[in-house]
Write the structure tokens for this entry.
Amino acid sequence: MNINLLSQQVETMYGRLSTLYNHANATLVPSPELLPVALKELGVASEELQVAMEELTRQNDELLTAHSRTEAERQRYQNLFEFAPDAYLVTDPGGNIREANRAAVALFLRQQRFLVGKPLTSVVAIDDRSLFRAKLSQLTQRDHVDAYVRLQRHSNEVFDAMLTADIIRHPEDAPVLRWLVRDITERKRAQASLEQADYTPFQDRSLQTYTKGERIPLDNQALWLVAHGMVKLTTLSDSGDEMLVGLATDGMVFGSSFTSLQTYQAIALASVQIASIPLTEIARSPRLAQALLPSINQRLKQTEGFLAIYGQLRVQDRLNRLLSMLKQEIGQPVETGTRLRVRLTHQDFASACCTTRVTVTRLLGKLQQQGKVIVDAQNHLILIE
């Protein structure tokens, strides 16, 4: 029942009751039939009002439920705003800050009460404020704008930032501006290093260290670049045995984006230092992609080498192929021949040759007897020339 229908019913009841009242006052002695008719009309009016009241109560309950749901949704979106990983600000069209989420508080090193109510220009570097005001005025002609400006923290530290603004229009309220604030200092530093003649992919990157035997986490959105050391790349066979599928040495890259294997893990064979490079950065930087191309090419050749090993029918031939490849990949010249820089276990050799550890131990012992390999004091294998 809507308000118009209820209003019509009330007006109809009022008209009938007014007619009865006029008839009662028209004569000195009311008609005997007037009282039953009046009581009947009053009864009908009471019932209609009761039905209307019940309908209004039901609609009021529905409104309360809808209000509760709306409030819950508003709170959910408020939490999404508050706990978003990026810094967000909400301002009025004049640029005065109305809201600031936690990431913005952390970015500017200011408490929320020192941001809300202040003009956004107060956190813009003085030399960039005229540029920022010009970008702000553009929002009157468009609904989206990007601006590269320098912002300053509470400590007066200035940093490069990219501001992305969208205008949110409401049917009844005044429009508001939603600002995404991103610190691009590291990105600009990386771009500057790319322009240097002696650029290397390791430049201006922090290195992470993993000790021998430690498992290295893999990220679908980034790849690892080895600065120093060696990483063993393995998968699991159908029988659950570990299979060696690659060795990432100095200057080589590895990561889950290079494989379609369901099980794939990286383990440090010795103390290793590696740098993480996001795939998005590689996509944006042709020079970085070009610098990484030799590393990717080296990994591809190594993968082909392992495929050639697996293609040998005899286990002895597979082992000989593996030793020859390891000589090129991780060998270092010594007086007696070529020493493998990392100590691989017999199980590592077995997993790369698709055989058992016992078989590898027997074949390596045979090669030692023939004088083709020896083991030094650190249990590193030396291939005799």
